[in-house]
Amino acid sequence: MIVYIIVALMFFTGLYGIIAKKNIIKIIVGINIVGYASNLLFILLGYKWGGIAPIITEDMTAVYFIEKAVDPLPQALVLTSIVIDLAFVAFLAALAIRLFERYGTFDMDKIRRLKG
Amino acid sequence: MNDKGMSEIVKGISRIVFPFILLYGLSLILYGHITPGGGFSGGVVITGGFVLLLLAFGKGYVFRILPVNIAKALDSAGALGFLAIALLGFLSSSFFYNLLPKGYIFHLWSAGTIILSNIMIGLKIASGLFVAIAVLSMARLIHTKEGIKYKQSRTTEEEDQ
Amino acid sequence: MSHLIILPVAIYLGAAFLIALLYKKDEKLAGVAAISFVLLSAIASIISGIDVFTNGKILYFAGGWERPLGIVLMLDPLSSIFHIMTNIIAFFVILYSTVYMKKYTWTPYFYTLFMIMLAGMNGILISMDIFNIYVFFEVASIASFILVAFGLRAEELEASMKYTVMSFIASTMILFAIALIYGFTGTLNIPAFMSETSGLSPVHLWFIAGLLFSGFALKTALVPFHTWLPDAHSMAPAPVSAILSGMFIKVVGLYVLIRITANIFIVLPQIRILLLLFGALSMVFGGLMAYGQKNIKRLYAYSTISQVGYCAVGLGIGGYLGSLGVLMHFIAHALSKSLLFLNIGAIEYINGTTEAEQLQGLNDSMPATTLFGSTGMLGIAGVPPMGNFWSKLIIIIAAVKAGYTGIAVLCIIVAVITLGYFLKLQRTVYYKKVENPVKKEAPKMLLFPMGCLALLVFISGILLVPGIKDKTLDKAVSVMENFSYMDIKIGENR
């Protein structure tokens, strides 16, 4: 149970970064933390206490593997979601650079030409 | 030897370590279907090698080894190759169908098209991430008396001179 | 034959990287390649759509892995309507952008990103696996963030920043929901999950449904979650706004919301009340905000919020009439809103501004653009022969029949507000008399797609003629009303 609480804590830390912080770089860090929290939750849901890594080796029978190994599917899915987070962060970093070029600041309060 | 980049110790170590990083990335890609790893992880490791060079030697050196234009072309080629492997499945029954012989388990050739897909993904990720980091590395801040200024070189060639 | 359903995604992905690889220097060839690829997949989608409407749904197993192991792709009448509309509108928009995008640099990369976005949208429509939907959703979204910032002006970058951060929160919610779905039921396949929903405890079910709902409602821009839309849709280049406002938010938002409410969480009918609430709120709020806008593109963006509210209300009412109203309103609004964004793009192309105050009396200088623009405006406002009138009428009747009289009254009031702001806009921008007008019409390549869309807007009501309605819309409505996969045996192809 404690691990899920840690995931929730991580999620809210990141969310705090996204919502409350004004610096774009801190927002990006918050986004990273939120992404890791969701990935961690995914991994934890597929975990078995005392399980082994889902890699089959030559001296392992199929029955033993199925009994002991943790669920490999969430790990595959998390790999995909890591790639997506990577794309988000890379794009946001490029965007932050461009925004600095135009506005001369990373402060979201000063980047405010659109309203209404 | 130009005086760009970091000190001679860092350069020397990077020069020695770089081939091993590449080798490790390649092994991750090629054995992705039987051990942990695969196209994405291997590609990221290979990019890591180039980033090491970029930090140690400066941009000019890295862009001479792997020009950004070629990296872009490799990026698209990797994606197209992956798509071609997927379309190969149409010959048999469906999209992504694994129609190559499966080989023996625990051997290098043991999963049909998976290894080819891994190679293509590795190519795409390595070159794509390299392009992303190269583009990000072209921006820099210049500290002047009036404050911080921003400069971005438009092309990779301009950066070198 | 069944390969046709995967073909649009494959074509778009191939086209994207082919253009990036081969034609990145040559804008003209890139444009021609883009047009031909979009045409190809539009044809593929229409052929597979005809097949779906005559013979029923098509199942496709990627990689030959059958249910429940593999990823199931499926095209049923509901997704087929969205599929055909996406590809047709994309074709007109890409025709338009070959001329419009000339004022930007790096046009080949525009086509690349556009194709990736279309691939993601098509992928969402054929997926029957919730994680697959998530991946394609992200592919389409990330391409759309870059497209919004394509012009690299300060405002565009700011809009894209807001849009990206908001979308990230949405996608995190969706990912959490997917993780919980997998944790509780051990499956990601939508039909398999559907049959498991009744076994979950209500708290878990509400938690998952709430996360999924708010994630996709944020992408649909229902009102508490709408803040990114007016910026992003008004700042993007005109063809991008057209596809974002016309199709994108409907595919990544509305379509998935329909699946969630009507198909997945059947055991949770209360979710429809939420939709009614948010829908009514966005209907009124969008309409009122649109009334006060000075910038025409921004006005259209707020009008999109208001009109999507209608779709949400129709979905919230449910039943035969409500579902029919949603689909009809979606079709009519997609056509007319993309027409309007293309139209304002053409005006901007000639006059260089989108501010209502600086644009006056365009009827004398650009008669054809004015004609198409007024068609689109009257279409959205719901003037009788056009499809929007009938869809609004159906939604209002459905609301009255279901006992939501207040909602029906709100729908009528918002329809009047909509008519009001479009007439106000028309009177100054299009039909105001100006002295010695100079005739400068938009180029023919901009006019042609607008003309085709205007024609489609004008005749879109034809879908409700009894003979045609039975064959198309009714089949989709029956998917929304009672959706069951229990009749599909494993290994069966239909």
Q: Could you characterize what this model shows?
A:
The complex is a heterotrimer of chains A (116), B (161) and C (494). Chain A has 116 residues and is mostly helical. Chain A has helices spanning 2-20, 24-45, 62-68, 72-103. Chain A is elongated. In chain B, 62% of the residues lie in helices and 6% in strands. The two termini of chain B are 15 Å apart. Helices cover 75% and strands 2% of the residues of chain C. Chain C has helices at residues 7-22, 27-55, 77-100, 107-126, 130-148, 154-185, 190-196, 202-220, 228-235, 238-264, 271-291, 296-317, 319-351, 362-365, 367-381, 387-402, 405-430, 444-459, 466-471, 473-481, and strands at 58-61, 72-75. Chain C has a two-stranded antiparallel ribbon with strand order 1-2. In chain C, helix 1 runs antiparallel to helix 4 (107-126) and helix 12 packs antiparallel against helix 13 (319-351). Classes of the chains: A mainly alpha (116), B mainly alpha (161), C mainly alpha (494). Chains in contact: A-B, A-C, B-C. The A-C interface holds A 11, 15, 18, 24, 27, 31, 34-35, 38, 41-42, 45-46, 73-74, 77, 80-81, 84, 87-88, 91-92, 95, 98-99, 102-103, 108, 111-114, 116 and C 131, 135, 138, 142, 145-146, 149, 152-155, 157-161, 164-165, 168-169, 171-172, 175-176, 178-180, 182-183, 230-231, 235, 292-293, 298.
